[in-house]
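Morning F.,

Quick status update on the modeling queue. The single chain you submitted on Monday has been processed. Sequence for confirmation:
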Amino acid sequence: MVLIPKADEDFLQEKQFSYELKQAGSEIHLVLRQYSFPSAYASAKADLLITIPPAYPMAALDMFWTCPDVKLANGAWPQASEHHETKPDGRNWQRWSRHIEWRSGVDTLRSFITAVISEINKGI
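C-alpha cells below.
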C-alpha cells in the first residue's frame, strides 16, 4: 500500500531517517524515530510525528509533535509547545504549534521537514 508519494519516500531514505508510516484514521502518521535534538534542548532524542492529511500534497502539513516531551536546556517549554494530544497510537504527544507557510502544488514533505528542522534548530 502506497501511503505517500515516491518522491517523499525517496527523500526520507536519502536523509537516512529511521521512520515509520501508518494509516491513522483518515490521516497518515509519519514518525521520525529518535530524532536528534541540538544542545539547546534538555532531551537528546525523541520521536517526531508529522500528520499527513488525506488531500496531501494539495492540503497543507501543519505543526509537529514529539514524544517523549522535549524541553529547553533551562527546563522551560519551547515556544508554543506546552500542549499535548493523545493520538490514535495511544501515546501522549507534545504539540509544537508551528504554522509553516504551505504553497499548494509546490511544497512537499521535503520542504516541510526542512522547515521543521529549521524551527527546532532555533532552540526557542
